[in-house]
Amino acid sequence: MIMDDTKATVLSILQDLTGEDVSGNMDTNLFDEGILDSMGSVQLLLELQNQLGIEVPVSEFERSEWDTPAKIVAKVQSMQ
């Protein structure tokens, strides 16, 4: 199942970048919780591009659309 692979890849990238396993709470606000910052967002976008071929220009990055693991997965899936 492609959706499960995408979700697993996104969670793996987040865990690599942040050292946090966020799979247990897909609605955690990564910015409010201090798990992800602006530098982390850039790294996240680079990893999504490297691993999944998703290109998101930083200029089009709306933090409110990428602030939870669930939103990130949904966003990535919508771009595949």
Automatic annotation (TrEMBL):
Tell me the Gene Ontology biological-process terms attached to this UniProt entry: cell wall organization; lipoteichoic acid biosynthetic process
Record keywords, A-Z: Cell wall biogenesis/degradation, Cytoplasm, Ligase, Phosphopantetheine, Phosphoprotein
Q: Boundaries of each Carrier domain copy? A: 1-80
Determine if Magnesium is one of this entry's keywords: no
Q: Name one GO molecular function term.
A: ligase activity
This protein's pathway reads: Cell wall biogenesis; lipoteichoic acid biosynthesis
Task: List locations, semicolon-separated.
Answer: Cytoplasm
**What does the PTM comment of the record read?**
4'-phosphopantetheine is transferred from CoA to a specific serine of apo-DCP.
Any Pfam family the entry gives: PP-binding
Tell me the Gene3D superfamilies matching this sequence: ACP-like
- The PTM O-(pantetheine 4'-phosphoryl)serine maps to S38
The entry's cellular-component GO terms read: cytoplasm
Q: Which NCBIfam families match?
A: dltC, PRK05087.1
Q: Which family does it belong to?
A: Belongs to the DltC family.
Identify this protein by name.
D-alanyl carrier protein
Native source species:
Lactiplantibacillus garii
The gene name reads dltC
